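Lab meeting notes turned into a lecture example. A postdoc, R.K., suggested we walk through two folding results consecutively so the class can see how the record format repeats. The first protein's sequence and structure tokens come next.
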Amino acid sequence: MSSANGIRYLISLLSQPACADVPHPWQIGFQTAASPIMEGIAEMHHMLLIIITCIAVLVTGLLAFVLWRFRASRNPIPSNTSHHTLLEVAWTLLPVLILVVIGIPSLKLMFFASKIEHADLTVKAIGHQWYWTYDYPEEKIHFDSLMIEDKDLKPGQLRLLEVDNAIMVPAGKTVRMIVTSEDVLHSFAVPSLGIKKDAVPGRLNETWFRIEKEGTYYGQCSELCGVKHGFMPIAVKVVSQQHYDEWLKSKKSS
């Protein structure tokens, strides 16, 4: 990263709302969860990390014990043991138990993420090569959202993530997202919201999110869709109900 880009990046971090999250250089973990779905995904991830760590430690310990206990110097005459009933039962039941522990919360999270109840508003995202179009069918609003080019970025704006028209939603409201495409496969993905829904031509897929804190949350197309695949970002701007109502009036009057 050049010094100029580094300064721009630092300015952008300072200028972003505290509750919004963006990708960071050398980032390893998830972005901060901003929706109930992402909170569930993060909790599931932490549980799985504990389980796989315990499995890795157990297997490594057993291998080390076997190498030590059955080394050639201690066992010049190899054992002729062919099986051990209790051991066979144990290493069959233990994986089954682990799968049950993983499977139940996984299914609960899948059903939670797919079940949309009492949506306060609906937004339809339509993928194009290479930009997004957003429809608010209940409000009769329709607009395109294109990435802001590097030369047009203002101080504090994020390269490859800023758009000229962001999705605008009120804080604390349940939003139904309908996703489709008019040309090739795209994917509507916002990491901090736990959303990644394919945009398929001729098909409507749906998901939902609810964000309690105001801010701007960024995503990108996550399905290889052509030469400008990396240049169709997503921005979700969460504002107060009053600000949202004012935005609706301005959009309807324009």
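The second example is placed directly after the first for contrast:
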Amino acid sequence: MKKLTLILTVICLTLAMLSCNKSKTTTTNSQQVLQGVSFSIAPGHTGGLKSTASTDCFSQTANYVKATIDGIEHKIDVFYVNGAPFTNTIQLSPGIHTLNEFTIWSDNQTPNDPSDDVMLSAAPHTGSPYEQYVSSPTAISFNVEAFKKTQLPIEAVCYQASNYSSFGFTYFQIEQVTVREQPFFGDLCIKSIADYSIPGSPYLLQSNHIQLDLPAIFKIDVYRNTIFMNTFNNEAWNGEGQPLKVLYADRSGIPDIFEFKLYVKVRKGAGFDYVYFTSWTTTDGNVIPQNNDGVLDFSIGYCNPNADYVLPPWINLPSTATYTINGGWAPGSMGGYVDASLTNVAPGYEIVNQTYESWCCDHETNIIVGTNYNMDVFSSLYPALLPAFAQTRPWDKYNWLLNHLDWYPGYHWYDLQGALWLLESPAWNGVASGGVPNVSAVMTQMKNDANTYGSGYKVPTGGWAAVVFIPTGTPGNAPNPTIQTMFIRLDP
């Protein structure tokens, strides 16, 4: 649970207090009538300052506020109503005023000795390193109007200064923000040193040069309650030597769900780019599950099996390609279900413009021979990125079969295709269809073995993985395919 923050809230009851503190001036001539002004101190929007104490700085009781208004510092006592802190009033005349600084203090239980007083929190200045964590840093100009109550929103964070000024009936509502810190570190497992040694590779700048297990260069995008907050990356130190410290603003008293999206700089076509891999979520001050060292470490590929999160390897695939079934229908000439020609693939990817043996995992849907289909290209190692209907396919079991065909000497193309259909949901009924004969003993054995050994299968370096083709423009939530979902196998 979040720790209680200092919240000084303006309530309707303060109106009664205002009537007791109005200006002694009662005439309506050129003399000014001092007016009531309230200030709402709200949480920062994208961050704040992390407390260096063992507990949050907001857990301590506030005794007074220092508010500098129009260059004059006011020390305002704090009192509590039903557990919520308020300031006593100060007076402001109508007109434009400037809030220069606003800080919240504890007297450390020695009210007559200011030497040991502790500043608990404040609002950041314009131009300060923490300006980015609030929407309205100080100094702030505000207008006090005659016979009107004015309320000015102020955002305060832990251990940082800001100025405040007013003259009249002024109340400060303070909501605090704790900036929490999560360090990240990653490994990038590659299969080809040559792929990461080309000119322009950011990994050439690493001190140990290119190796099969590289410190990952990556960025983390932070979202709070689905709203983008900030981005952090480790390019400044080329990903090596230290973790990436990600700061995020946790508002006390407000339920906050944080999402940390991971993008790793990998080979993409003939160059390098950030690619999304996964995300982690946490609520308020809860910690993302990890080992006890405080650093969340991940591995792209299996070269660091002891990482907190081990993700499948990256396959350098284009976003789109043109897919065409060539020649006759089932079987293809290359030993697969059909022959598939890929075109419009830019240079540098692991698939190229050529013909591949191809397979189907939608026995109830059609595809037309000789038709050019514009396809989105997906790695089966990351099924969560596929449209909804394709996510339900057992890609781990399909990949297990593609890597264990040596278990079935003498098998035919239709044995593998039939086994793929039997693993579908709903499963093929075993009656001859689409060029595949009735279910065979080999098909059944393949299916049974895949169910026994294939759940959660991790494709090893040098193994085979399915590359999936889905019609371009298919919605991510599509419940059914429009054509057969086709794939080829590739060495990742």
